[in-house]
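User: Write out your own:

AI:
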Amino acid sequence: MLEVPPSVSLNASKSALKIVAQNHNVIPRPFRATEDKPAVPTAIVYCEGNFGEIDGKTANGLIRLSEKYKILSVIDSEKSGLDTGMVLDKKPNAIPICRDLADSLAQAESVPDFFIFGMAPSSGMLSKHERGLILEAMSHGMNIVNGLHEFLNDDPVFAAACLASKVEIVDVRKPCDKKDLHMFSGRIAEVTCPVIAVLGTDCAIGKRTTANIITSALNESGVKTVMIGTGQTGLIQGAKYGVALDAVPSQFCAGELEATIVNAFETENPDLIIVEGQGALSHPAFSTTSFILRGSCPDGVVLQHAPRRSMRCDFEKMAMPTPASEINLIETFADTKIIGLTINHEQMSEIEVSTAITQYEQELGIPVTDALTRSPERLVEMVLTAFPILKEKLAATV
């Protein structure tokens, strides 16, 4: 039977604890790459009722890009039986959506190495049902990836489940000890390559996806580019450099980002650094964008906007800003320039996207594109036009 410390949380249901106890004969081990085990661990992603939606952005991101895990399936009973690629981008990818955990396990050749909580609810906390499901996954021998503000390693119930099932929990957002956090030092001035921040007019609007596509397109064109992740999804995807800024005490946010960028610059010697944005500078619910602008001191900004989104995500009475107003705010707040606008095409037809691109280019006088539906070469040209030195470097290597 599972032995639970006397201080165990009362939030765990008895049925959830029984699940862990009943699987006491399972003897899994925390994932370790070995000669007979693939270096890329397998994972299933939980996204009940939210896959393809705004609150499912972690699962959505992992389907589009996952360098750290091989995603086997997504759990969402509302879209069970569908292909994840078709749901997101109308392109099949052979990663199925399963009804529940049992269905997902049945479709896997063996027990996956990880169970990833793939949602980003505004509360940042688990429901009672979700706690039980994670405990059940642990009882089957799966390690847990948790991107919420609720740190499961600090919960006695989950700590006991780790010991009982010999698995580990990765609390992605948990910052290091305060004694190890960095204050802003000014060393960002030592970064001599251009730094571009991908910001937005709202949260959950596609900043990370666009940042990933820009980074990939530039690297493929011959411009050595490093991306800095600033949220839990980017880190789960496998960003080599990054920090979950919204979990860092505000006194250290700018310094932590600065230190991460300096480390990436000194280690990789890149031609360009891309910084993933968070929230929106004009959004009163988020302050992370201000820290990104302060800590990265970007030479340029790519702004992401959803033309058909009339109200802020999760704030139905708060109207969206226009790209022009957000550009004015950013360029007033920081010593930087907007080098281009990218479109989130949610609820838009192909014709509407084309019309929006033309309209915004005429209105704003900057390049405009859709990172997902237009050629990535447009993003490369956007960056090279803003920073001719990169174009000169490319020409010199031909």
Summary: Residues 250-268 form the longest helix (19 residues). Confidence is low (pLDDT under 50) at residues 1-29. The CA atoms of residues 342 and 385 lie 15 Å apart. The first strand starts at residue 42 and ends at 46.
